[in-house]
Amino acid sequence: MPISTTSPTLGVGMVGYAFMGAAHSQGWRTVGRAFDLPRTPVMAAICGRDRARVDAAADRLGWAAAETDWRALIARDDVQLVDICSPGDSHAEIAIAALAAGKHVLCEKPLANTVAEAEAMVAAAEAAAGRGQLAMVGFNYRRVPALALARRLVAEGRIGTLRHVRAVYLQDWGADPELKLVWRLRKELAGSGALGDLGAHVVDLAQHLTGELITGVSAHTETFVKERPLPDGSGVGEVTVDDAALFTGRLASGALASFEVSRFATGRKNALRIELNGSDGSLAFDLERLNELEFYDGTEPASRAGFRRILVTEPDHPYLEGWWPAGHGLGYEHTFAHQARDLVHAIDAGEQPAPSFADGLQVQRVLAAIEESAEKNAVHTPVHGAQ
Amino acid sequence: MPISTTSPTLGVGMVGYAFMGAAHSQGWRTVGRAFDLPRTPVMAAICGRDRARVDAAADRLGWAAAETDWRALIARDDVQLVDICSPGDSHAEIAIAALAAGKHVLCEKPLANTVAEAEAMVAAAEAAAGRGQLAMVGFNYRRVPALALARRLVAEGRIGTLRHVRAVYLQDWGADPELKLVWRLRKELAGSGALGDLGAHVVDLAQHLTGELITGVSAHTETFVKERPLPDGSGVGEVTVDDAALFTGRLASGALASFEVSRFATGRKNALRIELNGSDGSLAFDLERLNELEFYDGTEPASRAGFRRILVTEPDHPYLEGWWPAGHGLGYEHTFAHQARDLVHAIDAGEQPAPSFADGLQVQRVLAAIEESAEKNAVHTPVHGAQ
Amino acid sequence: MPISTTSPTLGVGMVGYAFMGAAHSQGWRTVGRAFDLPRTPVMAAICGRDRARVDAAADRLGWAAAETDWRALIARDDVQLVDICSPGDSHAEIAIAALAAGKHVLCEKPLANTVAEAEAMVAAAEAAAGRGQLAMVGFNYRRVPALALARRLVAEGRIGTLRHVRAVYLQDWGADPELKLVWRLRKELAGSGALGDLGAHVVDLAQHLTGELITGVSAHTETFVKERPLPDGSGVGEVTVDDAALFTGRLASGALASFEVSRFATGRKNALRIELNGSDGSLAFDLERLNELEFYDGTEPASRAGFRRILVTEPDHPYLEGWWPAGHGLGYEHTFAHQARDLVHAIDAGEQPAPSFADGLQVQRVLAAIEESAEKNAVHTPVHGAQ
Amino acid sequence: MPISTTSPTLGVGMVGYAFMGAAHSQGWRTVGRAFDLPRTPVMAAICGRDRARVDAAADRLGWAAAETDWRALIARDDVQLVDICSPGDSHAEIAIAALAAGKHVLCEKPLANTVAEAEAMVAAAEAAAGRGQLAMVGFNYRRVPALALARRLVAEGRIGTLRHVRAVYLQDWGADPELKLVWRLRKELAGSGALGDLGAHVVDLAQHLTGELITGVSAHTETFVKERPLPDGSGVGEVTVDDAALFTGRLASGALASFEVSRFATGRKNALRIELNGSDGSLAFDLERLNELEFYDGTEPASRAGFRRILVTEPDHPYLEGWWPAGHGLGYEHTFAHQARDLVHAIDAGEQPAPSFADGLQVQRVLAAIEESAEKNAVHTPVHGAQ
């Protein structure tokens, strides 16, 4: 059932089939049904280590073939784009190999578990770019329409000179006392805790929305519950990642930024909230109400000024041309269709999509500075390469 | 790419490819990727009058074949379910023929443009039921998870004895002074204006959520702008449908209900809001924030009671087992996947899905009573068959 | 402790010392401390039937003297203004006598329990006006700053041609199953139930904010709980007033209005909500958030338009010159200080303050039409004198 | 007009008559009208340096006498309580002298401009306590009913083990480019900028609501606009205080705290927001909606849990026994009446009211640690005396 028999295709091979794999699949499945595309994505093959489970995933998610070795996936002729949805410790190896094999790459965030890995990925991406291959990191929240609109308003100068960025990303699943020592709580697998999982998103958004880099940070991290029952019931084990992180920083312009990420914010399910205050206006967003953007226009007379709730569902709002009439809201998963749309266009045009691997590396450097500051009694720590 | 090679299939044929057609397509395309189903829906054929356009729609929306005559569509062997998304004046004829041809039927709301048509459809559905065929009307908002949760809380007795239902459905596209005399503003095509388009939804929801019928109504309707430019630029024509309707009524239990629907509520894009007040609690919902349900538990001590915002994204909320982790919101279109899920289960089980054609007829009778009351100076007018 | 030894005084005599008496006292006590006034109000005397209780009230509320007969109060030389806060069945007699005695009069809403009483009061006020005496009815919510701002925005044309008014006033104390048969539930004392108590406010506001009269109504009323325990424990008695009323109507311009008032809206404590939709914009207000006004400016580009929350605490917002810096909210009782401010200015200038007794009579006529419609099966019933 | 001729009086003498003087006056004027008090406050005398202006203030605000020397005020026999509303640099001298003169003292926040001054004040207060005199610092926001309720819920254990405190206090008047170099922007007069003005409040609330001390902090401060026009038009001068401060810290239990205060948060007028997350629940408050408290009860089943908006106007909510029926909101100024109520009761009972001068000193020490950390590159800095 091709969307178009006339446009060229783009074969996609995806690594991973858990939460992110399902979300990316929905993006690839839907993007050509909602948007006009210069190439038609084809869900060519999916890859996972367990044969039975990857076959079931291919069947359920709609991939034409299944592989159990990512090397086989990237070797397939019908795959032009490798979409990496596996855990962070595998990103560097797969991405570098895929680029070496001549494929375009989309890699889930965080780009890698370490700065060194990320640097290697950037080098590989830059080399590949010379061969016409593109690499993109999957900070999908940039493509929530309300946040894309926020970026547009900032770029138009509507908030004036930036003064403050204030961002939190709060969840509460860690507060469950019966939670076991899952892989996300082990440093050797997950790299970090709330910091890499949630902090990477708010760091990327803060830099993307403002168009500025974070130059230095001061940070506290904390692990509230130090031991958890082992999943196999054989006793307890140590939690080796952070449950929460607080960090403050400065942006290149001198604006101040404050951040908090936590898995212990009882009642907050997915509260990525970000606010920007500038000399002429302010913007505020909450992912739990993702179809809305609040905008304060400080150039209005004070007697009529107020934070307005823009319902970001109008035809001329970013990405809305593909969807429903005004007022019919989108959901979380639509960000993956938007990401796919922009990547397909970029590949067709041969232009670098944003965010690049270099953007992902910059986020990684901020995370590294946060960890360094937290270890050094919160002292302000410069972000490498951002000064 | 079948979802499962072992489960039987269910061939779907759809009539219409505009807004509702695109939304239903997204439902059929997605449902088997998100939910476990006893039968695998197959998007067999789509039907539209214009060959080029229906071919393009099939291509874009992912249907395997395209027909230009609905009679051909319902005659296809690979179609077991006919999904009717064409305008209201075509519903009765197609649905009755499809049932006669031995197909299951899903028909968009409103069931028909007149009570007489709806009655004929109910008769056909009842006859077909004896042959094991099922018929359902597409009031998709029943399957917004927050509203499904509301229904569950009412059924559990959590709001006690019902006192009030208060519902509005407000949009604002009619307030555009440059709006032309489109088909939705002509009675011969659309049947009615805001009443059938928006009023049908709130009437159905009021009855569904409360589990009670509306027994009588008092109504005002209004056409604010009496003439509009003709689309072809040849002058102006008369607007022959209502722009807004206000109606109040009584439910079977003696509870009071108030309703307002309008296309002239400037700034309200898709504000379907419904509140229920009972002796023990209250519920409130707004479609512009469709992942939320407000619940007031009146059995709490007054000093700690308050309307709570339930983020309806938990794993044990209705329909959420198929989607994302807590806090990751859904959008408008998911209602169509939920509708498809329940219909596939019902067909497999041979059980009548809700809402039935009889439920659709009951809504039609309420709309007829509203029109009658509006013509008779708002006098309270009984709803036929609801006493 | 006079506020000013140079400005003339205005002696106030108040009838009643319950909730409204305490609220008015706070207004008179505060007004000269917050605002510049041309005359200094003096809390000269308070009146109640029970000597011990009225003495205690004078002491508590800060009145210089206490009377047990309202005739004695209005005869006092140190009283130039009679402020009537007693129940509605006493308003006409006291107001007419006070006017005959040469006093200015402020009378709590509703103006009277019947249209006939209100007509007699208007006649007395008009005769007294020729002698330089002023009469005002106490619809205090007109002087919530957010609603005064709303009126200003409507008058400036910022919402364009009016299409809809939508107002509710919801409370929930009636839903308490142990509530006794208090005087407010007996028609012979209270005149009506939710209708006069809550409905009078929304009718006045709808007319005041729009600058239009309600020309006709269609109404349902209901008494959900028909019998209540007598306060003295001697058995049960019949509830003879409405618990709730729904009414719809038309304004002079052809705009539609919908209203609902209830004492059975569980969880809604004081939810007076009013929304106006016009061709160019909309306004929305909720008394539970009385420092806020929502404004939608439909002349903005759709991509940046949204309901803005104006925090009505800026120095140039109505009445705010007397209070605190921006952002420091006011409460319910401030409306009585604002009412007092405007009345003192009007008396000093010899100009009729709004709302007049005639405005109060007009509200009474709307309430009478509502009751008539409710008795006549909701048929649309013209409001006397409003066509 | 004494409130009661039988209860003893409490003569109050107030220093200062600007914003805080007016607010405190409203508190003293009102408290005995709303609450039952064991002693009747008498507004005996007010003090300011300018004779004409203090006479006018006495007249306007309702004080019986006026002094131009605070030494004369505290020497008056009719003054038993000295209420200090003058700028922070005068607090120590006046408070210590008043205590030496045998008076009770209420001192506005911040207690002093330096830790050394605050320590001297605590010493004086402790000595005076032995003589039966009481001293209190005016952190009025503790007595917003919603925050008093929050404290009650924490003390009842309803949020369980504390994990996070998150507080901001955001205003925007500093963002006005035409703002002159007023005294609040000069360190020699104001001590600090947003930190002392706004930060003192959030530090006190964080410690009060949680019942824990802040043990250490990491801080950034910033002055965005370095020069401002002089008020006399003679050129520009340097801004010597902070415009904004960000600080993070740890509480005694190991919970994390994050704070931000700013005068450059465009559109935020008085946004003191504080959220507490515990193992069993969360609380959230916003001063711009001061009659509301949000409470998440994590012990509810997840499918029905949500942040509930408690309208803190019920009769059994803190301080509400003195005011209006449920749903009738209070304003900013009511906090001063509540403060007066509790202080009068404490004086009558001879019991130390909270917050004490020692509590004020503790806040001062946190502010000093913030300034020290900001100077030392944000390194985590212990709070003296809190370990």
UniProtKB/TrEMBL annotation, chains A, B, C, D:
The keyword Oxidoreductase applies. Pfam families: GFO_IDH_MocA, GFO_IDH_MocA_C3. Residues 11-128 form the Gfo/Idh/MocA-like oxidoreductase N-terminal domain. Keywords: Oxidoreductase. InterPro entries: Gfo/Idh/MocA-like_OxRdtase_N, Gfo/Idh/MocA_oxidrdct_glycsds, GFO_IDH_MocA-like_dom, NAD(P)-bd_dom_sf. Residues 149-283 form the GFO/IDH/MocA-like oxidoreductase domain. It comes from the Bacteria. This is Gfo/Idh/MocA family oxidoreductase.
